[in-house]
Amino acid sequence: MRISYEWLNSLVDLPDDPAELVAEFTRTGTEVEAVEKVGADLEHVVTAQVVSKRPHPDSDHMWLCQVDVGQKNVDPDGNPVPLQIVCGAQNFSEGDKIVCALVGAVLPGGVKIKKSKLRGIESCGMNCSERELGLGSDHEGIMILPPDTPVGLDFTDYQGLSDTVIDAEITPNRPDCLSMCGLAVEVSAMLNVDTHIELPRVAHESGPDAHDLVDVTIADPALCGRYTARVVRNVKIGPSPEWLARRVAAAGGRSINNVVDVTNYVMYLTGQPLHAFDLGKLSDRDGRRHIVVRAAQDGEKLVTLDETERTLTSDMCVITDDGLTPVALAGVMGGLNSDIDESTCDVLLESATFSAGHISRTSRSLDLMSEASIRYERQVDGANCANVAQVAAALFEQCCAAEVCPGIVDAYPAPVEPVVIALRTGRVRALAGAAIPNWFMAERLGRLGCAIEKLDVAHYQVTAPTSRPDLTREVDLIEEVVRLWGEGDITATLPAPRNHAGGLTVEQRRLRLIGSTLRACGLSETSTYCFADKDDLGRLNIPETGRGVPVRIINPLVADQSEMRRSLLPGLLRSVSYNVDHDVDNVALYEVGRVFFGREHASQPDEPSYVCGVLAGRRADDAWNQRFDEYDFFDAKGMVEQLLGALRLTKVRFKVAAPEGYPWLQPGRAAEVLAAGESVGWVGNVHPRSLANLGLEVPVVAFELSCAALLRLACDELPYRDVPTLPGVTHDLAIVVDESITYEQLAQRIRSAGGKLLADVRLFDVYRDPVRVGEGKKSMAFSLTYRAADRTLTSEEVERAHEKLVSKVCRSTGGEVRS
């Protein structure tokens, strides 16, 4: 909502500094997105007076003028000195008050005023026409001001063009603040000042009664709660008065003509959308026009004012001519077949309310948003329709020289009744945690338009205004009181304990441990959208097996967020892509969040939580004396091991991930994570093909683990083992095996064969050579440590145990000891 400071100040007293009002808006819950100074493009443009005018010595159509600009041009002693300006206009005389652009001014259209020479004579400014000032199309001569115009004033101040526009984000529950009158009431309550809203009134009514000219029928009250119609005749179409065009522009509209501008102005003023029909374009039956508000028919066509043919559905509401031909798409946009044009003489003025839900669905399904639909979506005050129609009729009378017909046709099947709410003052103070006095509650709620009746010291009966559909319960009134009191003025206090000690649950502690461990590993926590593209899994080649059915969003805000996510990985990969595109090469992120697995014939999806991490680039930024390696599979594997160790999971091992089970991971660089014999997730390099489908050209390593499995298998107790005090004996073993034998398989057989005396197994070398080792073979060298807990081992015991181990391992793997 664009708020003109000048316009709002005419309805309620405002602070001199707009920044004070912005601060109050922010304090009371209205977000301000921007503050714009209007009229800045006419800086260095001032009112002036022609002191002398004589012909240019070297031109037959130019004039050499001395122009008084007051204190805008002075001599060294501070005395005003006229400017010399060469001018080609012919419509002015000595003594005329004019508009002068000084050197340094930049006029609309980018025209820069500089000191120059015209036909050899120096010119220090420019006398301006209306078109050069952006105020009209007249450029035949310069703009002549009234004789009593002061000299040397900034033209924006003189014309009232200088204004501040506050762009505020109005929440959907406050439709009253989508109007200048509603904002005036809000500011009145915020600043505790009186409003002075004076709406125009019809001066004289003449001609036939509106009931003799128009009939209104609402076929479906569920679509239209109220429809009022007024008739104005002999409308003179033309440009709007300057004040009207200026206020429409300040509110974000575009001045078209006086009829359209009046309807837009009243909408901005009151929040009630209006529509003007050309009465002459509606069919005449029995001497009257018959307006029928009904549901559209499936496939029915309507060409709207933007000259686009729309195909309608039965969920939409239309205004029809005698129930047959649609002439407007209710609450969204009028039809081209009844629009106002130069030939319009008589106007049918509509002021109505429509179903918020139907208007919302209509505008979105047709991709047709308008200022009217935005207001109808948030609910328009049906009790005020007739009053607004009166205001619009009065402005038609003033700005369009129209004759207002007496009477107003009003179809109102279900009148809106104000809500009556009981308010307990003690409850207000209890919920607010502040000693808010009764007088403050009554005063500020009264300024919001509520009718207050005091029942006793502790109880009020409050009648909420119909313009505030959000006020339906006692707690809504309490929220308004607290908002105006100021949440920042309420002292923060801890909730009182009720015979129990507070603390985190086991699950909460473990979830925090997951986050702190990953942050200690160098990852940064992030949070991505729960909404996802329906093609996310397909782009990454992630099978849908085990991920339920998609949970689709009925009305997605954007096309690529049409369903709930079923994996955290696509969102994190997009974060990597965003960072890389913005020259952040080293990315290490993790997220703990829910995914959504839909179920057939179930009202709610499963919502398991996962922890997912992505690594791209280098481990750290390179320094002058050190260059860091890029992240690889073992970095991610080490982080997963660190996390599982912090949670004290037992029997952790990594199993080579089968390519057919993990097609989004790079074969040979991926592993399934197992704990206590149960799969808890995966870790590996994301397949280059999957990355390319998301527009990523850098390698990415990732992992994803089930939070449910981690929390279930985590232990609080750490098994204790005595620190070894007896020496161990170390043997190296290099064994040649087939390439297909993995480290995990070989290490598992070594541990099994070593028995109780084998204390540690560590791989320290892998060697391949077709000549020395053999084709399709590899040599894996291990360091084996033997130790007994109760004695020092003898060399004979170690040798027997080692020979037994070597024999069993070679027999089970088909390997041989490398000499």
Plain-language structure description:
This protein is of the alpha+beta class and 819 residues long. It folds into six domains: 2-29 and 171-191; 41-159, Nucleic acid-binding proteins (OB fold (Dihydrolipoamide Acetyltransferase, E2P)); 210-411, Phenylalanyl-tRNA Synthetase, Chain B, domain 3, CATH 3.50.40; 420-487, 2-Layer Sandwich (Phenylalanyl-tRNA Synthetase, Chain B, domain 1); 506-713, BirA Bifunctional Protein, domain 2 (2-Layer Sandwich); 729-817, Ferrodoxin-fold anticodon-binding domain (Alpha-Beta Plaits), CATH 3.30.70. The chain contains 21 helices and 41 strands. The strands form eleven sheets. A seven-stranded mixed β-sheet has the order 29-32-33-37-36-35-34, sandwiched between helices. A hairpin with an 8-residue loop joins strand 34 and strand 35. The longest helix has 19 residues, at 795-813. It catalyses: tRNA(Phe) + L-phenylalanine + ATP = L-phenylalanyl-tRNA(Phe) + AMP + diphosphate + H(+).
Q: What descriptive keywords fit this protein?
A:
single chain; about 800 residues; alpha+beta; OB fold (Dihydrolipoamide Acetyltransferase, E2P); Phenylalanyl-tRNA Synthetase, Chain B, domain 3; 6 domains; seven-stranded mixed β-sheet; six-stranded antiparallel β-sheet; about 25% strand
